[in-house]
């Protein structure tokens, strides 16, 4: 996932509180198993057993009547949702931070239910399974952003499919950011100084003595002396295989190919395809969902604490 420079992913304070509640729940369970009085009271609630857990009598330790779960499944399910929402908030915040980044493509989260069958459950069908939330993938939305006029002769926008090929220190990368520059030696580079490549993986160089630069819609580069080269656009068969690097680069993990038909606009740039209003609304929805799940975890923690206090009082009386 592309992260804006200097942008720190926000982590809601509820996330740390939920981890504390998770830790507290484990401590409560350990106290029940370790303290003889609490252990006796705990057995009273689950059924008649011997006082020594090592000699469990007619009910061995693996018997279904023993309650060995470290915490209620309700909390586990809520925490799985909170963990997914935390990642979703990071992605949404990053989209919003890059709303003005040239050529940036927004990302989306893909979630699914992880179904777990409960053992030794004889209730109604709906009680025999548990649905946890799992984060399956993060994917990019490659919908084209709006093209805007700049008037700069070294600014280029792609109308339609395709990517510019860029030579970086880590290898060839693809980009939709056409904010290029011309170095003193005539090499066309991106905003990070990476050379732009043609179809033969060679840097595009404009002779130093040429002052006029014109690029046709088919990518043909011309100067006062005529055509000297071509901007070629690359693509892959499956855009979902591209891995984002930084703010605007994409790493191809499969074989690239040259587009036979292309349209390049000189003096224009492609804006980010992020809709700031949509992303802001999404952040509000995530926060509300987060608060509801956090309240559930907090309520369950209070319920367990009250139950343990009740068990202690009954065992002591």
What can you tell me about this protein's structure?
The protein is α+β, with helices and mostly antiparallel strands. The chain has two domains: 13-143 and 275-316, no CATH class; 147-270, no CATH class. The protein contains four helices and 18 strands. Strands 5, 6, 9, 13, 14, 15 and 16 form a seven-stranded antiparallel sheet that branches. A hairpin with a 5-residue loop joins strand 7 and strand 8. Helix 1 (13-34) crosses helix 2 and helix 1 (13-34) packs parallel to helix 4 (276-316). The protein is elongated. The two termini are 59 Å apart. Residues 1-71 have low confidence and may be disordered.
Strand content: 15-25%
- The secondary structure category is alpha+beta
Query: What is the rounded distance between the termini?
Result: 59 Å
- Give the helix level as a range of percent: 25-40%
Question: Helical stretch count?
Answer: 4
Low-pLDDT runs of 5+ residues are 1-71
Overall shape: it is elongated
Say how many strands there are: 18
User: Which series of helices and strands comes N to C?
Assistant: HHHEEEEEEEEEEEEEEEEEEH
Q: What do the pLDDT scores average to?
A: 77
Largest pleated sheet: 7 strands, antiparallel
The quaternary structure here is single chain
| Computed CA radius of gyration, to the nearest angstrom | 30 Å
Domain count: the total is 2
């Amino acid at each position: 996932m592309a992260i804006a420079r200097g942008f720190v992913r926000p982590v809601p304070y509820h996330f740390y509180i939920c981890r504390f509640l998770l830790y507290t729940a484990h401590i409560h369970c350990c106290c029940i198993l370790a303290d003889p009085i609490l252990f006796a009271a705990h057995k009273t609630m689950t059924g008649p057993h011997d006082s020594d857990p090592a000699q469990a009598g007619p009910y061995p330790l693996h018997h279904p009547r023993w309650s060995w779960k470290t915490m209620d499944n309700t909390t586990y399910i809520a925490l799985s949702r909170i963990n997914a929402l935390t990642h979703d908030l990071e992605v949404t915040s990053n989209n919003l931070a890059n709303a003005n980044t040239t050529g940036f493509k927004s990302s989306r989260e893909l979630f699914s239910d992880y179904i777990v069958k409960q053992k030794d459950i004889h209730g109604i069908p709906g009680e025999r399974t548990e649905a946890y939330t799992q984060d399956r993938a993060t994917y990019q939305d490659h919908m084209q952003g709006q093209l805007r006029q700049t008037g700069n002769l070294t600014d280029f926008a792609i109308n339609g499919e395709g990517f510019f090929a860029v030579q970086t220190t880590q290898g060839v990368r693809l980009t939709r950011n056409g904010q290029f520059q011309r170095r003193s030696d005539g090499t066309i580079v991106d905003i990070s100084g990476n050379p732009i490549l043609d179809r033969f993986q060679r840097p595009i160089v404009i002779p130093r003595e040429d002052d006029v630069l014109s690029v046709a819609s088919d990518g043909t580069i011309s100067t006062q002396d005529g055509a000297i080269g071509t901007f070629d656009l690359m693509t892959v068969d499956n855009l979902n295989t591209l891995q984002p690097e930084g703010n605007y680069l994409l790493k191809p993990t499969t074989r690239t190919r040259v587009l036979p038909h292309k349209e390049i606009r000189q003096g224009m740039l492609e804006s980010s395809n992020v809709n700031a209003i949509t992303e802001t609304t999404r952040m509000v929805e995530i926060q509300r969902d987060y608060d509801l799940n956090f309240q559930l975890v907090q309520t369950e923690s209070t319920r367990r604490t009250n139950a343990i206090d009740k068990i202690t009082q009954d065992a002591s009386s």
